[in-house]
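Table 4 source record.
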Amino acid sequence: MELSNSKTSFIDYLRQFIDYESNDFEDDIQKTKESFTVLNLKKNDYLVKEGEICKHFCYVESGILQHSILILDEEKTSYLALRNTVTTSLNSFLFNKSSRKSVKAIFDCKLLVIDINIFRDLIKNNKAFHQFYYNLIEKQICLIDDYRIDLLTLTAEERYKKLLATEPKLLQEVPLHYLASFLGISSRHMSRIRKNVL
């Protein structure tokens, strides 16, 4: 079977998390890529809704996925998955539990996905994917830890400036109200901060 050119960036993404030790890893990377299938979501389609089981672990080839929860009927953004990242509702996906959050496309998305059976098979039998996943989770835990500390120690303006320095793509690609929710501030306050920083 001819390999799809659309998945080239996915291979590059995998390689970022893999320390090459043998030529076997190249075969494993190719097998990993071939295990994923395409899932297209239109804007406002859900990967998973709160209360449902998340069926997919996915790589975002294009578009943006918003992770959100409802608090007193108000949507709060907990995470934004951009192009060239992987995401899922992990607790739901791994343990077949109801998701505590929704994951929704805020633009049309092209995703590469696997289900839990393929995921577990790759973890068990594919050294490249196993190393990729281990290193990915390690990195994400550190990022989550930093984010939680920032919420407690930085002002809203300081959090915005840090986001501007570390994730400029978010500010370019994501609508203002999603960013404000992600930073834990109101859209009005966010507009004032942006004016002050510019």
